[in-house]
Each structure stands twice: as C-alpha cells, then as structure tokens.
Amino acid sequence: MYLSKLVSTFVISSALVTGIAQAADISGAGATFPYPLYSKWADTYKKETGNGLNYQSIGSGGGIKQIKAKTVTFGASDMPLKPEELKEAGLVQFPTVVGGDVPVVNLEGIASAELVLDGPTLAKIFLGEIKTWDDAAIKALNPTAKLSSQPIVVVRRSDGSGTTFIFTDYLSKVSPDWKAKVGANTSVEWPVGIGAKGNEGVANNVTQTKGSIGYVEYAYAKQNKMTAVRMINKDGKAVSPNAETFQAAAVNANWEKSDGYYVILTDEPGANSWPIAGATFIMMHKKPQDVANSTEALKFFDWAYTKGSQSAIDLDYVPMPANVIAQIKKTWNTEIQADGKPIYKTN
Amino acid sequence: MAATDTSTVDTASRAKALDRLKLGDTIFKNLTFLSALTVLLILGGVLISLMHGAWPAFREFGFFGFIAGESWNPVTEKFGALAPIYGTIIASFIALLIAAPVGIGIAIFLTELCPMSLRRPVGIAIELLAGIPSIIYGIWGLFFFAPFLQVYVQPALIKTFGSVPVLSTLFSGVPYGIGLLTASLILAIMVLPFITSIARDVFETVPPVLKESAYGMGCTTWEVVRNVVLPYTRTGVIGGMMLGLGRALGETMAVTFVIGNAHKVSASLLAPATTISATIANEFTEAVGDIYTSSLIALALILFIITFMVLSAARFMLMRLEKQKGA
Fold first, then answer.
1. One domain, residues B314 and B167
2. What single DSSP character describes residue A24?
3. Which of B28, B77, B194, B216 lies 20 to 30 Å from A87, alpha-carbon distance?
4. Is A151 an 8 Å CB contact of chain B?
C-alpha cells in the first residue's frame, strides 16, 4: 500500500505541478470509457471559458483510488460505488453519460449485426462450455447463418476495467452459473480465453484472431468497423447496439429512487433496450479540501450537462435525461458543501 | 641563516602541498565510496519496500500458500502466484532451450568458420537485434507472428503430434495464435543476441596455440570446437546463458502482447498463460483493495528473488572462469 500510494502520489503530484503551471486547471482521473468525451468537453470548455481540465484516463479502479487519496478533484468510474462505500469515504457520486458494451466477433462470412446471441449463450461461451461456432445453442438462434465448426477463441480484458464490470454484471444477471463461478467485478477470474490490455487490445486481438469473440465499448467497435453481435434483451427482442438502444435502456432506470445514483443499466426491460448498457460516474468529496477547484469542477459539469449533449451524441454516448440532471444539481446543493453552505449554487 | 630559512619554508610548503593532495584524494575516495554506497542503498531500499508491501499478502495466504496457490480471483480476493511463476519459468526456459544452441552456433560460426568479410556485418546485425525496443517485438508478435502461427504452424503442430503420447499434451488445444509457445519464441529472439555476443567473446579468449596444436594433430573443425573450445569456455558460455535467462525472466511488454494473460497452469504450450511481469503490468493500475495490490507486490518480490538467484549464479560462473584464466 505504501508503495502504491507513493507511486500514485508521485504521478499525481507531477501532474499537479504541470497543472498549476497552466493556471488553475481542474484535475480528474479515472475511467478510460468516457475519456474521448471528457477530453472533447474539456477542449470546448477551455475555448469558451479559458479554464482547463486535466483528465487522466488511468482506469476506473485508479480513479476510485485517487479520489479516496484526495490527490484529484474528481474521480471517474464506470463501476458505481455502493451507497455504503460512498458514505464511508465521504464521497458523492453522479452519472454523466450512458454507453454500452458490444460483443464483437471475427467470423468469415458473417456481417455486422448478423449474428444473434442471447445472454445465457454468451455466458456459456465465456465460461468455455460452448466451444465451437456450430454449437446447437448458437445455431438455434441463427438458423440461416453459415457457421463452421471453427473453435471459439474468447478474448477478454487482462487489466481491470469498468467495461468488464458492466459485461460481467450482465452475465451474472442472466446466468446463475456465471454468478456462482465467476461473478461481477472490474477484473474477474476468467475461466477461458486470451487476455488483452485495454479496449484497444481486445479490439486488436479480435481483429487478428479468426473465430474470436470479445467485448468492447461501443465507440471502439464502431471506429474499428468490427463485426458487432445483436443481443436478445430481457423482453426477448433482438436489438442492435446504437445510441437509441442505449437510451432505451437508460430511460427505464429508476435514478430518482436510487441512493447515490447506484444504477446499473444491464438487462433492463423494454422492447428496444440494449442489455449491456452502463452509465459512467463522477465521484467527488462531500467536504472538499480544495473548495476553489471543486467549485470549478462543478461549474464544468454544469456546463457539460447544459451544453455538452451534442458532443456526447456525436461521440455515440447518450446524455442523461433532463429530470435526472435536475436531480443531480439538487444533490450538489445539498451534499457538496463547505462550512454548511453549497460550494456551487445551481438554479 | 638564509639557507636554513628557505629549507624550512620549503619543507613547510611541501608538507602543505602534500596535505592538500591528500585531502583531494580523501575527498575523491569518499565520493566514489558514496556512489558505490548509493547502489547498495537503492537495492536495499527496493528490497525492503517490496517486503513491506508484500507482507499483507503473505500474512493472508501464507508464504507457501501464496506461491502454491493457483487461483487468482479479484472478486473473492483469493490470490496465488503459481500460474505467473509457472509461466515465467517455463517461457524463459523454452526461450533458452531455443536460443542457446542457435546463439552458440552463431558464435562458433563467427569465431571459427566465418570469412573475415562476413564477420563484421553479421556481428553488427546481432548487436542491432539486441537494440530493438521490446515493445516493437510485442507489436510485431501480435500483428504478424501470432496470426502466422495460428494459421500455419500451430494447426500443423497439433496434427503432427496428435498421436504421440507426451507431445500430444504439449501441443493440444485450440490454435489461438497467442500463448505460451508464442511468448517463448519471441523471448528466444530477444535473448539470442545476449547469448551470442557473450559466447563470441569467451570463444575469443581461447589461446590460439591450443586450437593450432589440435589442428596440427589433424583434428577437424568439429573436433576442435567440441574438444578444445567448448570445454575451455564452458563456464563462460553457461554464464552468458544465465544472463540471457535473467533478461527473459524480467521481460514485460513483448510478453504481455503475445502470452494471452490467463492465470492458468495448463500442460499445453499452445494455451494462453501469464508471467509475473506481465501480470503486474496489466493489473497494477486497476488493483482495488489492499490484498490485491499487496499480492502484486508479492509477485514482484518473487521475481526479484528469482532474477537475483539467476544472476548471482551467472556471476559465480563467470568468476570461476576468470580464476581459471588466471591460473
């Protein structure tokens, strides 16, 4: 612990030194999944207001570690912290955007969105119980597709990741077997498969390896023009991954009633819901030490909620619904305070 | 009077000058000593912080429990180092098994058989191979070498050895392309220049008179190499192999790309595996929780110990060679 703290303090302090050199920049660290969006937001925000944001995409686990160590103004994670964990660490958490994990395959003669899978079959593939592409379970879902007896090569993350959390959480919900044997976390004990580092690593390995299946965040599947799989959702409908189906999954979520916005968007009901969707979260201290910087950070997120929706949509993320944003702002007023007063007053 | 005066002044100034020189020497000695001490301090500091960081993991699982544990489960926080230790040792061992004969062969060719005009280009090519950054080996391995192995080599291996008792287990399973064998092959390429250049250097220490006498007696080149050169340089060559092994044990990036990063001990060489350094590189940034982080530091400590043992064995053998040469 001592060592890791030392390392992270060093990394962050060097980051802070450069941050201070360019005037009071807001510093944040965490999830890689929303990184393209946060850097786009930061860029536009800097042009509009002159205030910079320094976001390091070190991964969700790293983001949680660093906000707990108070080395950054905000942490970012795709895995929400449970309400009791938040309370213990004195943190507030709120979602920024919604995205989704997409299973991708490398199969000759199979086009994107041609192959259909359901949750239990996907779980069996990742458990190593379904070993070839012409398995009866896959054939039953794809009666017309040309599937060979090619062995299935499972590709998954080797590093800890919020993307993995969303994916394994979904498999745990749809397969009791998966829940008992593997479970859900940012990294798990994988029964089979090749481990690759980062979304890029999984995308590359799937592209390189014939007969492979992996899972990546939607933007990576789209940018690399990978063969996406359609999933059968909770309502029994086959859906393609895109902004609409992610939105459909988010709409049915009960944000208002969830303590600390602890909502996981996997396996949501709704005919058009993508089953492996997930929100990405920001974590901040309830009683921040550096009030000025935290105020700047809230100002930035306020701006992002009001003016950042279009860039989110452009980058295939789904903005939060208006009623949820209103509630998040209320949360800021009541929970992030200094001397009993909100540090940033929103209307 | 005047003469005596000058002589005392002379002695005094001379003594002063001598003192000054002595002071300079003392400062120089202490400075160099301090530099030497820094190395020991850093080494000691690394070792102590590793042990301190690894302590929670060892306390939780027990030292032998940790080393022999096969499970690596971040969900239940159960960690064992068997799979990474196994992967590290087997991958390095196979790499050495391939690189040692090839490297020694190159060295023999360069010192005994090679025409003068070829000696320099081949020598420089070997040294260039050592200068390629490991990440480049990794990328080449992932984008070119692994797909090539998956399509052409591994299916052939599986087919050929499918009915041979022991080999069928070694080459069983699905041709992933990536895996223990691929990592071993990449490592073999990476340690090859080390073994070659050390072997070449020690072969050049063989006194020409020994070789010439053997040739004079009518020995063939093969006999000279087998009965004169190799026995004379045996310890040096083994030392060089150990240094190569040391490099293979710690290699991180290239291995991470091609080994498959699976915490599994499997008999098949085609199966994905992991090494200690690959595990740390993959998981350290995202390790949440004290036991997880501590287990990774414990892995680092184990790698430190293994590498230390290999390198001291190499040193010891090279030392014996020096003694032999002196005698």
1. yes
2. S
3. B77
4. yes
